[in-house]
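In practice, a research group might receive sequence data for several interacting partners and want a quick structural hypothesis before committing to experiments. The following worked case mirrors that situation: the sequences arrive first, and a predicted assembly follows.
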Amino acid sequence: MGAQKKGEMGAQKKGDVGALKKGDVGAQKKGGARVSDESEEQSRQRLQAILLADSFTTKFRPVTLERPKVLLPLVNVPMIDYTLAWLESAGIEEVFVFCCAHSTQVIDYLKNSEWYSHPSLLVRTIESHKSISAGDALRFIYEQEAETSQIQGDFVLVSGDTVSNMPLADLIQEHRERKKKDEKAIMTMVIKQSKPSPLTHQSRLGTDQLFIAVDPLTKQLLYYEEDKIDHARGTICLDKSLLDSNPSVLLYNDMQDCYIDICSPEVLSLFEDNFDYQHLRRHFVKGVLVDDIMGYKIFTHEIHSSYAARIDNFRSYDTVSKDIIQRWTYPYVPDINFSGNRPLKLGRQGMYRASDAILSRSADVGSSTVIGYGTEIGSGDKILNSVIGNGCSIGSNVVIEGSYIWNNVTIEDGCEIRNAIVCDDVKIRAGAVLQPGVVLSFKVDVGRDFIVPAYSKVSLLQQPTKEDSDEELEYADSSSGTADHLSGLNLQMESKASELGPDGAGYIWEVCEGARDEEWKHSVAPIPEDKLAEITQAMDDDDIEDESVVPTSGELKSDADSINTDLNDPVDDYGYFEREVEGTFLRAVEEGFAVDLAILEINSLRLSYNMESADCAGATFYSMMKLAVDTPHNSAGELLRNAASIMTKYKGLLGFYVKQIDEQIEVIMKLEEMCQETARELGPLFSQILRVLYNIDVLEEDAILRWAEEKAGADEADKVYLQQCEPFIQWLKEAEEEDETEDEEEEEDG
Amino acid sequence: MPDVQSTVLEFVNKLRKRKIEGSQATARYTVELLRSVISQQRVPHANQASALIDAVKAVGEQLVAANPVELAVGNVVRRVLHIIREENLSLTTAAMAGLDLMDASDDDELDNSKGIGYPAMSAAVVAAARSTLRPPSLQTLLEGTPESATVPYTSSSGADSESKSKSADKSSITRKLKHDVIEEVNQLIQEIAGCHEQIAEQAIEHIHQNEVILTLGSSRTVLEFLCAAKEKKRSFRVFVAEGAPRYQGHLLAKELVARGLPTTVITDSAVFAMISRVNMVIIGAHAVMANGGVIGPVGVNMAALAAQKHAVPFVVLAGSHKLCPLYPHNPEVLLNELRSPSELLDFGEFSDCLDFGVGSGSPLLQVVNPTFDYYYLDYRGGHNPSYMYRLIADYYSADDLVM
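A structural hypothesis for the assembly, expressed as tokens:
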């Protein structure tokens, strides 16, 4: 024995030594690492950003077939310039621009712009043609990273269509400090208050209403949902465990996700590990929130005075343009030269005009308009809330309202353009009308007096016949794109048989079936009156329905556990459980197996239905009474005898579940309920059954007395059984007093 | 040269992004940048002055375009150009004088025709150069240079004669011009850097015992001015209008209180109510225009009108770099800048009704018309608005007004 012990001790010691040594080595390594850490720390001060110059969606089609989204002009400046200018002035020193669709165009643009030679911002490009989602892009960057390791620390992840003027340095600092304290805090997400429209549940940016839950103290993001919200019922479902594990939760529905993230390097490796993560929010954020094993956390940061928004669809294009004109994005506004753009002059009422634009005297140019360089505006034109690019020529008596006309567009006399986007080099011939929501892609030619129907998208390229049913993917055109374009163009020129009038050129794209109803949601046009009326109507109906079913609409239902989603009505649940217990009990009676086995079975039922033991007591007692009632009998006396015998036989079973007073009360309640509803025959026998239960020690006198007390305050109708067993209760009370006096006497004796 | 280019770019960037605020800081950066431009500029043997002027102008144009609202940049560029012209002129006259002597001594060595023409011409050239390069200013009149009625030569004739004269000793002049210009620019830097102190020195002459002073917005010049009076044992009260929506008045008030001045913050709209109790309004200006108009923080016009109504003295404190030779009605001059409406509104609160035409802007500056009387104080003392054109004639040369 002793030797063995010694051996063990020795081994232990050896182990200790080994551990110590390891520890030492580790410490040394750490020390070594610390030195390099410090140097790293210095280089880590280099603030880096990854800019995804591809939206990986098709929402801007057909325009994005010919030009990448980030190069589309937003108030006459390419979107990517806003993003880069903001990153630069926020103190970012190095930007990795990830290009995918039309990568050559993006790279060429950056090369010719001042960004490549910028003194304080280093712009690098990463090119990939295989990536079809943000997830792929980050995986690609991660793989490259393994070779080059250029990204040394936390980085800002934005997309190339973000417009913002928020300061980043403090936010990055905050993220770093949080990371130091908590290894698992891998991401900080920027949010901004922005009320969604109460009618359409749609944000100003045309995206769905976003629901997020945040821990009010730590600002940790707990819940993120934008798709699966049932607006019709006005409810959302939260996992109960969310409320269990957090003492307080703040739930927002008026937040806008700015799609600006401060990420730690772990984010990249997470994408690498989970190869099915595609979408940054839908997959990654939700994935991290659900995953308890890794325990990674995402935090939020709310901005108040600064601006941030992402252009996701045509509606947000419209909204952000207006915000820029209204100067929310200061200093990134058209009259300031922030990125090599030529500044315009700001006049009264938010009218920006290039110095060499030629306006006819009779032209009526209203508020919130932008007129670019070399543009001519003819006599009698009416222009309101619109942006007109450089080198356009606009004939006389043209009406342009709420529209975005890009560069070198020719509009002949008498056209009417409302809430449309008109790309470069488009020709609109005399008398043509563009109805709200129209998008004309590059070089389209609209024929004389032609009326382009609302929400139509027109391009020189034919609509790709193969619809990607899956996620919005846009990439295939990138490499072979130019060749296709040319051939497409040629075809068009030859055939000329156009859908846009005899002298026009271009195809009107079909709207795919499912999206037709949704079209107005993402369009540049404001939501049409009839749609609004429809929604209001629907809302009113909902309210009426809601009032009848649920007391308040928009009520937050903290639901039962998510496991039995199909049975999540608690009342129904109990019904099922009761029936199962009854079946089990009957089998026990028929097959005559032991009480222990019955208990085992009922216990397993209890676990699977997530019931309390009081519920078991109730259900078991119910089964017994049911059996007694179902057994053939002639008189009440016989029924009572049956019941008594069953109860006596299975008192072990019942007794197992009625150890607590509460459970015993549950049994009495159950009996009462049965007497009133399911088995009225038992009514007259109520007090006798109670007495039997008392006699076989299933019920204690305390339980009966408490039940009597509770009942004392009830309605007269409910008191029937209480009155029936009045004598029994009286007797019980007396017995108790006697007991007490006896006790006292005994004590006195003692 | 490349490093100058990069610093210019960096500065242009800062100006563009509106990262430098305040006229004094901008003016200092600008003049320091121009000094390095001048010192790095390689000067050709001929026409060194015009080479320098071109270089400074090229940089100046970039800077002005980067932030046209900040007039101090243009002012300082013009001042530097003026310095170069002045130094060139004085060197030329000196050279002329030297040449005259040389002509007299070595007459026969020269070409005949030249020899005859030169002595007669040189005096005329000097006078002409003086009259063209330096417009008749108070200073020149008092100096009493005898002006001869000569044919108006253009300034290029001065350069011509200079190119001839440089054959005498070119290298020394080249070095001297640059040296002198940098010397002068250094003085300008000192002037700009010390403008607060210089103006503050005059405080005691203007602020008297038990007076009540009203000021608006935040200006370092005003702060130093008031504190200088306080240090000299003057006791007085200060009202500070808060200057919504940027509330810089609050900052000023805090500073004043920290230095022990009894201070009261009032809302902008209360200015008129308080003005009858005020003995003097003192404000800092963003710029003083050629016609005597003042550009100041938003709300300054209201204060000016109130002061006029109650005949309260109105004093504008501004360093000489804020004196702008342009007129406020010039369409090339951007007088104002609208900032983000987020200074006024909370974006979130209004986000659901923005599309329906809630518009707002937050202007930074305001122009006060020169029709009312005020007293402009710079480091040389006080001036009336009607005197502004004289000051401008002293500080700037007419060739540079349009860049």
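Before designing any experiment, note the following. Chain A touches chain B through 39 residues (CB under 8 Å). The first helix of chain A runs from residue 2 to 44.
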